[in-house]
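Students often ask what a 'structure token' actually looks like in practice. Rather than answer in the abstract, let us consider Slipin family protein, a protein of 248 residues. Its sequence is given first.
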Amino acid sequence: MPNLGIAIVRQYERGVVFRLGKVRDVRDPGLRFMIPLVDRMRKVSLRTVTMPIPSQQIITRDNVSIGVAAVAYFRRVDPVKSIVEIENVETAIGQIAQTTVRNVVGRSLLDQVLTDTETLNESIKQILDRITQQWGVYVLLVELKDIELPPSMQRAMARQAEAEREKRAKIIAAEGEALSAGKLAEAADVIAAHPIALQLRNLQVLSEIAVEHNSTIVFPAQFLSTVRALSQFVGAEGAKVEEPTLVP
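Now compare that with the structural description of the same chain:
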């Protein structure tokens, strides 16, 4: 049909017409007529293309070998440049995308690759977009989708995460002990100022223990009070005996 001077351009396409080898114009969607045997049309799709970037082994800046795969989204915005400036735009973008991913990831630390992928994605996109502008292509998005770590590094990271959790647990336990010690000190001050509070606490403990009704408990609370009173009495009598007696 194009050789007969008739072509149908779809809605998502643009038709670049060459007349005797020179670019004549760009045809919009619809039924288009050309000069038979003189004009030739090359159709260019303007839809977004999803291009997977195969996994490749990359050595990061801290000398860790990882496998990185990505995906790029781009579309042609200038039909003429995408045909005239380069032979196969998809192959070219695939090759330059692999090289760019390798260079950007290779200049980064492993922790940055794992935690700051958004910054790496934006850097790769900007580099690709700057290169592909001359080909009439706009890069919409680049995403690192798969990062493979060596088994030894996975085990090391697992041990690191476990040690970090243990550290947090010990810190929390130490903070709890510090709070508990402070509260106990406050309670001791209260009991020292009000001795009857100790007896009330003893009675509360007895009531809690007696709930089970399965044991007999001897709690020498009154005995302790009696011993304390006896000690005070003996001390007072001893003080009286030591006082000198005046002879008239």
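One point worth highlighting: The helical segments are 79-84, 89-106, 110-115, 117-132, 151-193, 196-209, 221-242. Ask yourself how you might have guessed this from the sequence alone, and why that guess would often be unreliable.
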